[in-house]
Structure formats: C-alpha cells, structure tokens
Design goal:
This protein is an alpha+beta fold and 170 residues long. The protein is built from five helices and seven strands; from the N terminus they run H-E-E-E-E-H-E-E-H-H-E-H. A seven-stranded antiparallel β-sheet has the order 2-1-5-6-7-4-3, with helices on both faces.
C-alpha cells in the first residue's frame, strides 16, 4: 500500500525518525479538503511514542475534512539548509501517514492536551497549565493521529559528511 523509499541510503532508521518526531515543534498536516483538493495546514503537535496529537477549534475546515475522510499525512522538516555553492539543500524530514480521530472522551482529551501543554511549556507549573486548559476547555478540540506508516529521509550530503545519523555499512 505504501511505496518503498527509492533512495534507501538516505532513509532514516527508526530511532532517528522517533528523535525527529520528539524534538519537532511543528509540521504540516495534509487532509482531503473541499472538492477533493488537498488541504495542508501548519500545526503544533506532540508525539508520545505511539500517536500524534493536535489541538484545534471545535469547528472549522480541519474537522469538516476529517469527518469526510480520516486519512491524513503529517510532515515534519527537521533540517532545511540551502547550500547554494553545491546547488542543493541539506534536509532531514519525516512523513507520517495515518488516521485521525476526534477525541470525544473527556479523559482522553484531557490527557492529550496535558501532553501538548507539557511539551510547549516545559518550565511551567502543573497548576498554571491546568488553569490555562480549563480556561480554553469549551473551545478546545483534540485530535489523535494513529500511525499506519512512517518514513524519514535525509540529504545524502548529511549522511556522507557525518552530520547526519550514523549507519553501519551493509
């Protein structure tokens, strides 16, 4: 169902894919929009090692798109450095394919927003985060993306230079 990566030497190992997902701050969520046009939107997120969580308003284009088709992709760009003298870009990115569901259960929703809040306010107190969550609770929708397929890739220059992850030679 999912295509294999053509340039296998540039494929990131699972550990590095997970590292990119954990350290990333934002990515682009792609859904099937109106009239079957792709709808891609930048999103903050949190990855817990199993699933990806997003927050959004309780109405809007994202929710309408998810209601029509829960399949989605999410792309995180970890590195993107243009190297003009080499006519290339040193990049590292991850793409996740999965299905999104709206968290209706209050406990699931609470756990998901707490994960997101801890990621983006690591120095804040639990009490401050809880207060902020309560303040926005009625306007808050939480989305959970289950992962069906995931892949990561980096520029061959990073791999060869040692700036990328290290892989044993085959």
């Amino acid at each position: 169902m999912f295509l294999e990566m053509r340039r296998k030497k540039q494929e990131l190992p699972v550990e590095e894919v997970n590292a990119v997902l954990y350290r990333g701050k934002s990515g682009v969520l792609a859904l099937e929009g109106n009239d079957h046009y792709p709808y891609a939107v930048p999103m903050s997120y949190v990855y817990d090692g199993q699933k990806i969580y997003f927050h959004c308003a309780v109405t809007g284009h994202k929710l309408e798109a998810i209601a029509r088709n829960c399949k989605a992709s999410f792309c995180i760009v970890d590195q993107d450095e243009i190297v003009p003298e080499e006519y290339t870009t040193y990049y590292r990115s991850v793409i996740v394919f999965g299905r999104i569901r709206i968290l209706e259960d209050k406990q699931e929703k609470r756990e998901a927003i707490e994960k997101l809040a801890r990621k983006y306010t690591p120095d804040g107190s639990d009490a401050d985060r809880a207060e902020e969550i309560e303040r926005g609770w009625q306007r808050l929708c939480m989305l959970e993306m289950g992962i069906d397929h995931i892949s990561g890739k980096e520029a061959k220059e990073l791999t060869l230079s040692g700036q990328g992850h290290t892989r044993p030679e085959p």
